[in-house]
Amino acid sequence: MGLGIPAFPLTIVTHVLGVVATVLVLVWLVNFRGGLAWEDENKQLIFNIHPFLIVFGLIVHGGEAIISYKALPLKKEVKKVVHLGLHGAALSLGIIGIYTAFKYHNESGIANLYSLHSWLGIGVIVLYGIQWIYGFVIFFYPGGTPDIRRFSLPWHALFGLFVFVLAVGTATLGFLEKLTFLESTGLDKYGSEALLVNFTAIITILFGVFVVLSALADAPAAADDYEAI
Ligand code: HEM
């Protein structure tokens, strides 16, 4: 399904929103939550790696991977490698991001996997992994037969958008959950930190909206097309 509109202005808005979401999450974690650390007495700093790697890695890299076919006027084979590489980076950073949430829980003596957010989070990363491996094997190496590729492509695109939207929804739940924890331990409900976290979640959702719109828009002419003329 295509929207019949050019992707170009939409992809620019998507890039800008991705940068803004990353900057906002960093401003929150560094200015209000004490920064990020892999090892520290203050276990909250270990937790802080989780939202950063998820937003910057899984969501922003994942979204950029999805729109790579629409954002870059390059040869199809080059775009395929960019798509695969960005998704690989998103998946790897997402796995490390989830690991840090477990690390924080384990080092703080908090139970694992008790929330809807965590259950959906496991679902997202498992589905993302399956989607990446299937795409690699069918479209890259060793590659499926032309019939299998033709059959798989629309399902790959649909399933990819589904997993991405689920990831954005799960991240939104994560922001909500963290802010609710903070507010229940005294954080001002209308204070600047609460507004920043809610606003960061809204920008993340808008990034997701523009990724989906860009994915449904028309790609720019590829370098192959110019060569063919
Ligand atoms: C697609 C995005 C995300 C995924 C896949 C994800 C995944 C997970 C998983 C699997 C856990 C459970 C760790 C454990 O039980 O030890 C967790 C915990 C947590 N995450 Fe996320 N997360 C995402 C985004 C976020 C974001 C953006 C925030 C914002 C602060 C966040 C906040 C939390 C919090 C507060 C916990 C600890 C409480 C709990 O287990 O629910 N998450 N996350």
Question: Could you characterize what this model shows?
Answer:
By secondary structure, the chain is an all-alpha fold. It has a single domain (8-228), classed as Four Helix Bundle (Hemerythrin (Met), subunit A) (Up-down Bundle), CATH 1.20.120. The chain has seven helices and no strands. The chain binds protoporphyrin IX containing FE. Residues 50-51, 54-55, 58, 98, 101-102, 105, 112-113, 115, 117-118, 121-122, 124-125, 167, 170-171, 174-175, 177-178 line the site of protoporphyrin IX containing FE. Keywords: Electron transport, Heme, Iron, Membrane, Metal-binding, Transmembrane, Transmembrane helix, Transport. Its EC number is 7.2.1.3. It catalyses: Fe(3+)(out) + L-ascorbate(in) = monodehydro-L-ascorbate radical(in) + Fe(2+)(out) + H(+).
Radius of gyration: 19 Å
Distance between the termini: 27 Å
Q: Which residue ranges are poorly predicted, with pLDDT under 50 across at least 5 consecutive positions? A: 223-229
Which small molecules are bound?
protoporphyrin IX containing FE
| Residue share in helix | over 70%
- Which structural category do the helix and sheet elements fall into? mainly alpha
Q: Mind telling me which CATH architecture this is?
A: Up-down Bundle
**Total number of β-strand segments?**
0
Overall, the morphology is globular
Largest sheet: none
Order of SSEs, N→C?
A: HHHHHHH
Give the helix tally: 7
CATH topology: Four Helix Bundle (Hemerythrin (Met), subunit A)
Mean pLDDT: 95
- Indicate the multimeric state: single chain
**Strand content range:** under 5%
Please give the CATH class: Mainly Alpha
How many structural domains are formed by the residues? 1
Protein name: ascorbate ferrireductase (transmembrane)
Main location: membrane
Membrane topology: Multi-pass membrane protein
EC number: 7.2.1.3
